Each structure stands twice: as structure tokens, then as C-alpha cells.
Here is the input.
Amino acid sequence: MLEAIEKLLVLQDRDRRLIRLRIEVADIDPQRRLVQTRHTNAEAEFEKAKLTGQQLESERKRLELEVESKKEQIAKYAAQQWLTRKNEEYKALSHEIETCKAAISSLDDQQIVLMEKIEAAERQVVAAAEILRKAKADSAVQLQQMAEAEARLRKQLADAEDARAAASAAIIDPILLGRYERILKSKGDKVVVDVQRGVCGGCHMKLSRQNVIDCQGDRDIVQCPNCARILYYLPGMDVTPLE
Here is the structure.
């Protein structure tokens, strides 16, 4: 194998590690945001449950006040009945008293329904509080783990960048290095590929017999006529063309 090909394969290996590490580092922020979102959502659900309970409790107090108001009206109408001497006024006051009693009965029914809702809301607050507690605990652990992983990956990334720079510097021919960089940019991390069964290891297109012979000759850099990737051959590779 040409020395230049060997150096390109080393550089390609460094680039593949760099690409993988960069993907892993870039993936940390979305994961961190997901954990934070879960925590935020749990807080929002807890606050929503508390607000619902507060609103129901406020409604309960309003109904209680309304019942007390109706009772005060009944007492007032009853007192007026003792003072009136007119039958029509007495009947009218009796009607008002009955109306207030009916209103109180309706308010009592509403309070019964409301108390059931309040009990359900209280259970929801307890459940939401437990979910929030667990979300806080989980997020604290996960965020710490992510911070440690990020620090470790960034250290590995820095080392990989140094190793990549050294591998790049080892390639003396600037034209060959430029050719490699262009293919890397357009084709991804499969720049230098093998020849197996007479096809390019990158695009998998059939190569001409002369292309294969040139690769076996190890005298010059050979590129795939279809995808422009750099080809290499190792003894033992099966170069028998596919039927």
C-alpha cells in the first residue's frame, strides 16, 4: 500500500472519531433541555393543581357566605312577620322565607358537589407534588451526569482534534490533502475506500478492469470515476468482478 494511502487512512480514522465525538457533544444540549422541560412541566402541573384547589376553595367560601346571607334574610323576614298586622304582608314575607330556604337547599347541594371536587383536587395536588418531587430528584441526577459526560467528551474531543491535526500534518502533499478535504466535505467520512469484487467501497459502482489493476499496482493515487473517492487495495482482497 502506498505510504500516502496509509496516512490518509489514519487521517480518515481520526476524522471518524472527531465526527462521532462532535455528534455526542452536540446531543447533550437537547437531552439537557428535555430533562429541564420535564421538570418545568411537572412544576406547571403542580401549580395548576394548586390553583384549581384554591379556586374550588374560594367557591366553597362564596357558597358558605351566600348561605349565611340567606339565613340572615330569613331572620330579618321572620322578625318583620312579628311586626306586621297585614295578612298580605305576612304572606309575602312567608313567601320570601320559603324562597330563601329553597335557595339554601340548592346551595347545600352545590356545596356537596363542590366538596367532592375539592377532595379530588386535593388528591391531584398530592399526586402532582409527588411527580414534581421525583422530577426534581431525577433531573438533578441526570443533569449532573450530563455535565460530567460533557466534560469528559470535550476533553476527548480536544485530544481527538490534536490527533487529527497531527495526522493531517503528516501528509506532505498539499494537493492530496486538499483533495481528501474536498471529498470529506461532500461525501462524509468514507473518503478512502477499499475495492472488493470489482466495485467501489463507497458508491458500490462497478469499476473498470484498469481501475482495479491500477489499485493493485500501488504506483499512484486512484480515484473512483463515479464518486471520486480514493481507492485502495490490500493483498487478499477479492477483486473478482461481480457477475
About this structure: DSSP finds four helices and four strands in the chain. The longest helix spans residues 87-169. The mean pLDDT is 93.
